[in-house]
Amino acid sequence: xxxxNKTKKQLVHELTELRSQNAELEKSIxxxxxxxxxxxxxxxxxxxxxxxxxxxxLVLDEDLKIISAxxxxxxxxxxxxxxxxxxxxxxxxxxxxxxxxxRELLEEVLLQKTSFDDYEVEHDFATIGRRIxxxxxxxxxxMLGKERVILLAIEDxxxxxxxxxxxxxxxxxxxxxxxxxxxxxRAPLRGIDGWSLALLEDYKDKLDKQGREYIDLVxxxxxxxxxxxxxxxxxxxxxxxxxxxLPLDMTAMAQTIISRLQQxxxxxxxxxxxxxxxxxxxxxxxxxxxxKNLLENxxxxxxxxxxxxxEFGQVEExxxxxxxxxxxxxxxxxxYSNKLFGVFRRLHKAxxxxxxxxxxxxxxxxxxxxxxxxxxxxxxxxxATFYFTLNEAT
Length: 394
Known about the structure:
Layout: H1 2-52, E1 57-60, E2 66-69, H2 71-77, H3 81-84, H4 92-95, H5 100-112, E3 115-125, E4 129-141, E5 148-156, H6 158-202, H7 209-240, E6 245-249, H8 250-264, E7 270-274, E8 279-283, H9 284-301, E9 308-317, E10 320-327, H10 359-369, E11 374-378, E12 384-388
Parallel strand pairs: 7-9
Antiparallel strand pairs: 1-2, 1-5, 3-4, 4-5, 6-8, 9-10, 10-12, 11-12
């Protein structure tokens, strides 16, 4: 009887343990099912996002075989699902994707968990012709099994490249035309000025006062036109000139320009303040042209101030160092600031402040060529400040 009771106790104990194990098993199965459902839901969610992306997308496995593609991939490359899935990336486009550099980049993404951006590929595809593609890749991990895959985005930039090429060609043709016209106009203008001077000198006694004034006006207009053409030629050359970027002593450059200004204009009454220790990286000739323009403008537009003060220095702007040229002259209305850097755009009358209207356009072109930017702040009758950025000298 005792043995029977012991057996029953053992059976009860074993049954309890069995129920506990069943409960743990049920919990484990439920967890697995939940995880699978979550994974499926996550996969569906991810796929729905991928399908809404306008650019073609591919998902590659560790062997660089295609395991998924969005509909825009099929539309762009005009291939079918069966031709694509489980195929090697290098077999796409009649093996046009079998590029050593691309293979190297994709393998690097897998091995080092890195990424690459904006890798340009140009190829002839059997179905869509010659195209230029921009590739971006990232390694991602799937939820289950931690399988590593690569998400490859493909952007067709063929039309954009064609537009850029067309714009560049049109710009070069326009530059060439402007240069030719400007160059061809210089000789006739010199002739007008020279023959007018000869007329004034040889026939001065035969001309009355009004006649002499007319000839002076002809010469003055010819000289103004000559300066305008010289500025146009300089403006045209700035895009043609090769750049030689070197460390520049901006403080010394400013001081030299100011010294020349004072020698050329003995009536110039202005206090110049130059911050010491300013340096930058740039082409010496081009940067000197830009800084000379800005300092000359500051002197010109503050010439009517009772005490002109012109500063050249450097400040911190949006996390980057910016040079500035500041004056306390006539300033301008910021509502018209969009006209500042246009060719032949003027914010003041030529009768008040002479000039050709090309200087600031030249400055902007030079700064842009150096990868910098230029902008201005001003108030009417309270002066103006022109800021520009350049790469820092190391």
